[in-house]
Amino acid sequence: MTIQFENQHLLFGLDCDGVCRSFVDRGAGENYASGAPLAWVKQHDRLCQVSKVERAGERLRLEFGDPGIAATLKIAVRDCYLIVEVLSVEGEGVDEFVFVDIPLSLQGEPGEPFAACALALDLQTRVVELPGPGNRLRAACYARFGLAGARTALIGCPADGLRGVLQQVVSAELRLPYSSIGGPWAMDQEINNCMGITIVRDTGSINRRTKRIPVDACARRTFCPTRIVPYARAWRIAALSS
Predict the structure, then answer these.
(1) What is the maximum alpha-carbon separation in the chain?
(2) Could you please report the per-residue DSSP string of the chain?
């Protein structure tokens, strides 16, 4: 028996053992699922994959092999995305709950017709991948921050519509402050048109003291919004405008 949720662009399906069998582009009929378990828990440094799923309306009850370990998810269908929310987790000593883990056959590269993305919707939820086309959708929550209430958006849509869907998700679902001139709106804003990206590679010389050099340079000139991001041992610095 297959458990399915579908919207305008995506058909998402699981079997009764909790394996993701369908992540289908409804327009083209292409299935990008790789057949991996949807979820797992970490209990006392031991990993347990989902072994059984039962559906009741929007709710999924997940069991994880050992008696007493279970979780309930709510999957709400929107026109262009799905919202997955953790309602409860049962079992002693559950430290981490990866409630979405969907490897895909997509590469997350430009030129692909379909795009997939997960987006954390609150501070309880950790999504490793940056917002944008990806090849694996993951979302996790942790006991120390609270398991129940964690939420993520799952997006599968034509690649050229991803930014528009992200705008919908952020404006309608995000439980955090956001800027309407940044994120998925950044490319539409005139204030951002002057921005370029300069890559300053960290060869070991950038630290709390030396990173003030580019920051102080920005402070002395007129500039567009500047952001420094430590990523892959590089600092990305928005180029100054004259």
Answers:
(1) 65
(2) -EEEEE-SSEEEEEETTSBEEEEEETTTTEE-B---BS-EEEETTEEEE--EEEEETTEEEEE-SSTT-EEEEEEEE-SS-EEEEEEEEESTTEEEEEEEEEEBS----TT-SEEEEEEE-STT-B--SPSSS-SEEEEEEETTT-STT-EEEEEEEEGGGHHHHHHHHHHHH--S---TTSGGGGGG-GGGTT--EEEEE-SS---TTTTHHHHHHHHTS--S----EEETTEEEEEPPP-
**Residues 22, 4: contact at Cβ < 8 Å?**
yes
In angstroms, the CA 200 to CA 26 distance is: 42
Give the list of residues 6+ apart from residue 172 with CB closer than 8 angstroms, or none: 78
Asked if 114 contacts 157 with a C-beta cutoff of 8 angstroms, the reply is yes
Q: How many Cα atoms sit within 13 Å of 92 on the Cβ side? A: 1
In this prediction, residue 143 carries a pLDDT of 96
Quick check: 109 and 116 in contact, CB under 8 A?
Answer: no
Q: Which amino acid is at 27?
A: G
Contact at 8 Å (CB) between 218 and 235? no
Residue 32 phi/psi, 5-degree rounding, is -105, 5
**pLDDT tens-place string over residues 56-114:** 999 999 999 877 899 999 999 999 999 999 999 999 899 999 999 999 999 999 899 99
* 71: its two tokens: 């979780």
